[in-house]
Structure formats: structure tokens, C-alpha cells
Amino acid sequence: MARGELVKKLLLSYGHEDEFRAVVEQIIAEEEKKNNRVLSRALRKTLDNLKSGSQTKALNRLIPFPDEANDYIQRIEPTHSPNDIILTDENIELFQGLEEEFRRSEMIKRHGLPIRSKLLFCGPPGTGKTLCSEIFAAQLGLPLFYVKLDSLISSFLGETASNIRKTFEFARRQPCVLFFDEFDALARSREEGNDHSELRRVVNSLLIFIDQIQPGGFIIAATNMDAHLDAAIWRRFDEVIWFDNPDEPMMKKYLNNAFKNTSIEFDPEKFILNLKGYSYAELERVCTQAIKATLLNRRKKILRKDFKDAISNAERRKKRLNRLSDK
Ligand SMILES: Nc1ncnc2c1ncn2[C@@H]1O[C@H](COP(=O)(O)OP(=O)(O)O)[C@@H](O)[C@H]1O
Ligand SMILES: [Mg+2]
Fold first, then answer.
1. pTM score, two decimals?
2. Are residues 229 and 100 in the same domain?
3. In the chain, how many domains are there?
4. Domain span including residue 29
5. Burial level of 81, CB count in 10 A (0-12/13-18/19+)?
């Protein structure tokens, strides 16, 4: 951006700390690009020393991503809290470890050790991969950015490489969680040997970027199908975290949590056998439907019938969908 434009933006940001910092970050980036290292370092030092009004260090320096990137990167505002997700003890421990490492990263880096920052989430749909990224980012005070891979890639293949570069450059400078959903779609295109050589090149360059980047926060890739991922993909991630459909004890936990603020006239645990094989997302739909039926009938308590009806409806839907996917 021309310098005049930046100065104008800087003046307009007067009084808005986040915006001000974002513009200064842009100026520093421009100077870096022009190889004016002394000036960019001095600016960085001054910016870092400015007293900040808000608490979270990570959020203070929000760098705007390039306007063109709006098509394929989306900022997600967190709406859930850790109480909203049911995780296995193993995963709870894993995330606590990752958080601890991130919070104390300065100390770990001083000892010359790497931080685990590239995560692969595997598991069937509706098991909380997206939800967990949101909660994880919010817990760490990091903004969450969702990369729409299909838009990133299908834009103009010629531009894809530069889109990928910009995305990673952004994640390197901006402490954030950068979330790539449906990563398997990419992996498959790599594997299937289709003769779209440009697409394959793009996929490979994405993998190389993941390999090389030291993100300021985290890169998370999510996939529904771990079987489709080859070793070349696994090894690029510092940690692989599996999400599964709930087993009986986890289902109990989920149901009790879902109804903790409502009064019910039945024991939801009695329905566990009817709900075998349901994902968390499907369980959520059943519980929500039952609660809504109660509200619509102006009742205070959820009846057994409300819950049973909601399950029958979910069954109907599941049967139909299974038939479709068998075809
Ligand atoms: N582990 C979980 N605990 C509680 N709710 C969940 C869980 N997994 C999924 N859900 C519910 O299902 C919805 C969709 O889940 P999502 O995170 O999008 O699944 P995925 O990304 O694995 O396909 C969530 O918004 C949440 O309401
Ligand atoms: Mg998802």
C-alpha cells in the first residue's frame, strides 16, 4: 500500500488501539519488504513498548489480512465455552499440555526446544473438531481464522499459490489459530493421481508451507478420514488428535450436560441403547428438538414422549441418509 494511504489509515485509527496496532504492523511489514531493517526493528520495539489498554497480548496485534483473502479466510468469533464440549480424558490432557506449552513458549524456546503448534484433528463428522478449535483458540486468547479450502483452491488455479503464500505469511506474523477444514479433500486429490497437475502442485506446495512455517499460534487441519492420509501428511504435524463418536459413558456425560438446565421427567440414560452410533452433533439435534417441543407446548418439563419423538425423527433421517450413502 502506498505510504500516504497508510499514514491516512494511521490517523483514522486514532483512539482505536487494535486498529492502530494493525496499521503500524502493516507499516513495519512494508519496511521489512523494502529491507529497511533498522527502521522496522525500531518501529517494532516502540510498538512493543507501548502501554496497552487491554489484557490479551495476542489480541492486541491484530493484523488485517489482505482484502482479497476475504473470499477464503473467515474470522470466527467464539460463542462456546469449555463447558460446551465433551472430550475424552486423554484429549483433555493433550489440550492442557498444548496450552501449557504455548503459554510458556518463551521459556521453552530459550532452551532451544520446539513448540508443538501444527495439529491434525481426525475423526468422523459431528465429533467436535471444529467446536474444539474454537474453544481452544478462545482459551488461549487467540483469534480463530477458518480457511475455506475449496474457495482458496478453486478461485483461479494460477492465483492459488499466491493465496496460500499470503495465508501462511499471515499465520506467521499474526498469533492466531488457522483452521483448515476438510483437509482430506486435498489429501485425496494428491493421492488419486488425477491428471490435474496444477492442483497436485498446489497441494504439494500447501504441504511444504505447513512443513516450513513456525506459526505465531497454531495451525489446525481437520479431516474426516484418517485412512486416506498418507505418511507424507502425518509427519508434517506435531500432534495428531483423534475425535470419536461417543461410547456409552461419554454419551451419558453428554446427555446429562445437555439437560442440566432443564427439568425432565425421565432418565435420558435409559435411551442410550437407542442412540448407539450417534455422533455428538446428532445427539445435540435430538436434545434440542425435545427441548423445543416442550417450549412449543408451553410445558415446564421435558416428557419422555418429546425425547422419543425426537429420536424417531433422527432415525428417519439417518436411515434415509445411510441409504443415500450406500448407493
Ligand atoms: N465433543 C462434543 N461435545 C459436545 N458437543 C459436540 C461435540 N462434538 C460436536 N458437538 C456438537 O455438534 C456440533 C457440530 O460439531 P463440529 O465441531 O462441527 O463437528 P466436526 O467438526 O467434528 O464435524 C457442535 O457445534 C456441537 O453442538
Ligand atoms: Mg467441522
1. 0.78
2. yes
3. 3
4. 3-63
5. exposed
Substitution candidate for ligand 1 out of 179, 284, 288 with most atoms within 8 A of CB: 284
Q: Which CATH number belongs to the domain containing residue 125 in this structure?
A: 3.40.50.300
Testing ligand 1's pocket by substitution, the residue of 121, 127, 132 carrying the most ligand atoms inside 8 A of its CB is 127
Q: Is the CB of 166 under 6 A from ligand 1?
A: no
Give yes or no: residues 280 and 176 share one domain. no
pLDDT tens, N- to C-terminus, the chain (327 residues):
677 888 888 888 776 677 788 888 888 888 888 888 888 888 888 887 775 544 444 444 566 666 667 778 889 999 999 999 999 999 999 999 999 999 999 999 999 999 999 999 999 999 999 999 999 999 999 999 998 877 777 656 667 778 888 888 888 888 999 999 888 766 665 555 555 666 667 777 788 888 888 888 999 999 887 666 777 778 889 999 999 999 999 999 999 999 998 899 999 999 999 999 999 999 999 999 999 999 999 999 999 999 999 999 999 988 888 877 766
Q: What is the CATH number of the domain that holds 283?
A: 1.10.8.60
Which ligand sits closest to the CA of 241?
A: 1
Do 219 and 83 fall within a single domain?
Answer: yes
State the Cα–Cα distance between residues 280 and 221, nearest whole angstrom. Answer: 20
Q: What is the DSSP secondary-structure string of 57-88?
A: HHHHS-PPPPGGGGGTEEEE-----GGG----
Regarding whether 294 and 204 lie in a shared domain, the answer is no
Contacts of 78 (CB under 8 A, 6+ apart): 134, 135, 137, 138, 144
